[in-house]
Amino acid sequence: MSVRQRQAPTVTSEVCTDQVPEWKPAPRWKKSQPLSAEIWEYVSFISQSVLVTILLGVILVIPRYFVVTFFPVATEPTLEWWQTSIIYQVEPRLFQDSDGDGVGDLKGLTDRLDYFDYIRVNAILLGPVYEHSGSGVTSFTEVAPALGTHQDFKRLIESAHAKGKKIILDFIPNHTSDQHQWFQASRKSSQKYKDFYIWSDGVLLENGKRGPPSDWKDYSCHSAWEWDEERQQFYLHQFSRSLPDLNYRNPDVVAEVTASLRFWLDQGVDGFRLQAVDRLFEHEDLTANIKSEDEMQTPCPSWHHRFLSNITESRAVLDHWRHLLDEYGEKTGQTKILLSDANYEHARSVMALYNSSDMPVNRDFTKVGRSCGGQCIGRIVESWMTTMPVGKWPNWVTSYHGNERMVTRLGRNFATAINMLVMLLPGTPVVYFGDELGQNNAIAGPGGKESPMLWDISENAGFTQSKEKIGHIHPDSQMLSVATQKADDTGKSVLRRFRFLAKTRDQPSFHRGTFKSRLINKHIYSFIRSYESEPSYLVMINFGTEKSSIDFTEEDLRLPSHGVVEVNTGNFENDAFALETRVDFKVIELAPAQGLVIRFYPERQDN
């Protein structure tokens, strides 16, 4: 069955807070109403008569054979691997160095695959592995020499697949480096590559010189147009002048980029995260200026970007790439995932991407700061869940490369609370490497470099065998390292709790269960996950700034008088909420950064 034909299981969701009225989507399976006694007696008589007639016919007509047919029972769709797994994002250059040069590489990542078994991760999202200059790709099909070779990449794929792991590649189709051979040929107006990028003569100024064709701005709030002396024209760049935008209105560009995706699929990758997909098409009129005086008063208004974003046209190209992945999925018998990543301000504006990809990346939590308490978290969850198309699957991202980690913004004491939230909400958690350790953005070295993975308490945290000290190792590496946290006999370290949460997430109530946002106040966010006859779970987390309590018996939640603690955040001062402890639902008090998962069986609802 092709990916386009697949349909993700519906996540049933109810939102019930002080601010938001209860929301109920159409149920997936509607139970039949009970029959009256008289009707049932009649139906029973007819059924028995028909059954006797059929059996007599079978015995008389086919005396040597007795055939029994079972009518198939409706079953739920099988969950895809990207729905059941945690997706773990790795920056290869920061994960493990295998050759002592101080740069992480593909061999090092392959050597660390056992770690993913420990944290129960089965899908690895690789940051860019391509040959590059600065932050721009110089070849979409070559591995960056610092990371290894194609042979190293092939070994990683084969080793990961042998362990049941999937490999997803980051891919940025919007632009290339200005050192890419395509751009160098385009500057020379080489026939094939002449229109691979977006060029313009600009406008003739009063002084006789040429100026940009429009006042569009890039993400640095500078002109999105750069003059090229060799070609004597302006080219468009949305991110920086060294990253010229490709021209997706040129079919040859679509064909070349598609060939690059096909190349990696032939290597065995299991899918892609396509970044900046809303930027593939700009306004067709390159001379369209911003005319509003109010908008022009703002130094770098977001309105500038309305000329540089076109999700509608981008979807046609995404559909083409979706078809490509479906083709490989059918050929290999293994589903290929397509994640689409777009820059947007509101969840509603990106939901159209569900039509062309398995999931648009949800970065709403990456904007959360310390002032965001229970009600704020609830609004963020509600925003995605209530605007997501019916039958689609959510995802939750808290951190990514180049962005301040959520644990930095909230405080390291919130590390397990954050992990508890994203692991147990409906959908797929996307975890940035080190989040399972509570690693924040503290930088020790010059140049603002991000710290590599913290493996042990050695001088370079086990990241490299280089005898030279790496300058950007996290200053708290000994406390945060994998080795230190694995050895924690109390089981309360962030890593040990992450592993416990990953195991909890494998319960049917979290993979397939209904989701109900429940009692929420200024500090505490809570929700319930339930699935048929399986145990239900109440998840409650204090994201606020002070202690707070909730009485879960105030509303008709069909809760029993008590439940049992399944998981806690490991930062409680006493054993009142220790694992497997009986908890009264009457009043539960949590301090900031504390969270609980309470197991219970709902009270039976009479018909």
Describe the protein in words.
Helices cover 26% and strands 17% of the residues. It is of the alpha/beta class and 607 residues long. It is built from 16 helices and 24 strands. The strands form 6 sheets. An 8-stranded parallel beta sheet has the order 14-13-12-6-3-2-16-15. The N terminus is likely disordered. The protein has 3 domains: 350 residues, Alpha-Beta Barrel (TIM Barrel), CATH 3.20.20.80; 56 residues, Oligo-1,6-glucosidase, Domain 2 (Oligo-1,6-glucosidase, domain 2), CATH 3.90.400.10; 92 residues, Golgi alpha-mannosidase II (Immunoglobulin-like, Sandwich), CATH 2.60.40.1180. One of its GO terms (biological process) is carbohydrate metabolic process. Keywords: Glycoprotein, Membrane, Transmembrane, Transmembrane helix. This is Maltase 1-like.
